[in-house]
Design a protein that fits this description.
The chain has 510 residues and is mainly alpha-helical. It has one domain (14-451). 73% of the residues lie in helices and 1% in strands.
Length: 510
């Protein structure tokens, strides 16, 4: 147990705590994107276009598989956050135990089915014939790595729900570093390593994920993290049906948000393709920059969810509104700064990807001029979604995204492109963002999200509440099990969980 007092998610200055929590999440997102880019460079430059096509097809499948469990991981994060905020360690451990069993079974099943049907999946995607054998080799190793990827993601999201965002960042740094180093060694057979070609790229990902996961679990058990289940706590691994239902019922709508976004992006690309290869190239490069522009809002939104969940669990509703305001401000500053930099160096930033004297770079400049500012509005939407989903209100964000993207953005781009050309596609982004932020603000102000709940309302019979100290901080110095278990009643922050608010639905809306 750290001896010095550190900022907690339920105490201390909100702005500073949210910023310190958000930065490691942002760093993890950047590392993942850079890792994918570096791997693509190795494969594309040294193994050829067929190999790059193979990895591109495989990565689409991987993105879908990870997207399927994104919502369930987020539901797990929120449930742990609320339980930790309520100082209810027994409930937090029940969530961890149920989620662990669910993720292990789901990942093993997905890996087995995916490995067996890899050729059929790629055939259904019309993967080019010259790339298909390479894609099969690559994707089958990815399926072998899938259980470790799923569980690695689960552990990181669990730690964030418990208030620790730095530990996942450090081990993401380890994973990415190993992947980047092992890629060329296993692709080309440098030194004692075998020459595996494209399979080496997939194997490096498997080794990196497995090593980082094992190291992270070893650290958590060595530090006796209060959510690291020990032998005498194996009963928590038996699934709690109430928690399991909440994982699926709340997780699926959050996962479907990714489906709505990715599917609308596919349709949008088909609209762009109608305007020729130069326009498609320009849009593709602009989209690369947009990925990084959106990262601060995504990091802040995820951090707001973790922080709000703990405060909802603790019944600190006055802090919820202040956390939301801080999140909106950070989005404005961080996303606004990136947008401003790209506007200032628009042509130079695009020149990293496109020839300076080509037609596409001019088109890309125009796209950025119309679209970029709207990501500030979309960031506001993400932050507001982060707040409301932390209580268990997950359907409204899904509906708002569907309306703004499928009922506003795509019809606007499709119908008006006949009269004003490709500009209709670019203007559809600001229009959709205005609609989404308007609906999100309306739901935040007038919706009933404060009455939602994500944890089972009734406690499990026969389970005695445990004493819990303060929620863990944002560093690797997380509270250990012994310190939490022995927190005395004289400690101002050590209160029996039964005497504290247990559910968001028990609170009076402010």
């Amino acid at each position: 147990m750290p001896t010095k007092s550190k900022a907690q998610l339920t105490t201390g200055p909100i702005g500073r705590t949210l910023l310190l929590f958000s930065l490691p999440v942002l760093g993890s997102n950047i590392l993942q994107s850079l890792n994918a880019s570096v791997n693509s460079v190795w494969v594309g430059h040294f193994l050829g276009e067929a190999a790059l096509t193979a990895t591109s097809n495989a990565n689409i499948i991987l993105f879908f598989l990870l997207g399927v469990v994104f919502g369930i991981s987020m539901a797990n994060t929120i449930m742990i956050g609320q339980a930790v905020g309520a100082r209810d360690l027994a409930e937090a451990r029940r969530v961890v135990g149920t989620s662990t069993t669910f993720f292990v079974l789901l990942s093993v099943l997905a890996a087995a089915l995916g490995y067996a049907f890899t050729p059929d999946i790629l055939a259904a995607m019309d993967t080019p014939a010259d790339a298909r054998p390479l894609a099969i080799s690559y994707l089958r190793i990815i399926f072998l790595a899938l259980p470790f990827m799923y569980f690695y993601n689960f552990v990181m999201m669990t730690l964030r729900g418990a208030g620790d965002s730095r530990t996942p960042f450090y081990f993401m740094l380890l994973s990415v570093g190993l992947d980047v180093v092992l890629n060329p060694l296993l692709i080309f057979g440098i030194g004692p390593f075998p020459k595996l070609g494209i399979a080496g790229s997939a194997l490096s990902t498997l080794i990196a994920q497995l090593t980082s996961l094992a190291a992270m679990l070893a650290l958590l058990y060595r530090r006796r993290h209060f959510l690291a289940l020990r032998r005498h706590q194996r009963a928590y691994l038996w699934p709690d049906l109430g928690i399991l239902r909440a994982l699926v019922a709340k997780g699926l709508p959050m996962g479907l948000q990714m489906v709505v976004i990715s599917s609308s992006a596919i349709v949008m690309m088909s609209l762009v393709n109608r305007h020729g290869s130069q326009t498609t190239a320009a849009y593709g490069v602009a989209s690369q920059l947009w990925t990084y522009v959106q990262m601060p809002a995504l990091a802040v939104g995820a951090s707001v969810s973790s922080m709000v969940a703990q405060n909802v669990g603790a019944g600190l509703w006055d802090r919820v509104a202040r956390i939301t305001r801080a999140g909106l401000l950070f989005n404005l500053l961080m996303t606004g700064a990136l947008v401003g930099l790209i506007y200032l160096f628009n042509r130079h930033s695009l020149g990293l990807f496109l020839p300076a004297d080509g037609i596409a770079i001019g088109i890309a400049q125009q796209i950025n001029a119309i679209v970029l500012w709207s990501f500030i509005l979309f960031g506001f939407t993400i932050v507001l979604f982060g707040t409301v989903r932390a209580t268990g209100a997950v359907m409204a964000p899904l509906v708002i995204l569907f309306v703004s993207m499928w009922l506003v953005r795509l019809p606007f781009a499709s119908m008006l492109s006949r009269s004003i050309g490709a500009d209709a596609i670019w203007w559809s982004f600001p229009v959709g963002s205005v609609v989404s932020v308007t609906l999100a603000v309306a739901y935040y102000r007038f919706g009933n999200w404060r009455a939602s709940h994500i944890l089972p309302v009734e406690p499990v019979p026969g389970t005695e509440p445990e004493y819990a100290a303060q929620a863990p901080d944002t560093s690797m110095g997380t509270p250990c099990e012994d310190a939490l278990a022995t927190a005395g009643a004289g400690d101002a922050m050590a209160v029996p969980a039964a005497q504290l608010p247990r559910r968001a639905s028990d609170q009076v809306a402010d």
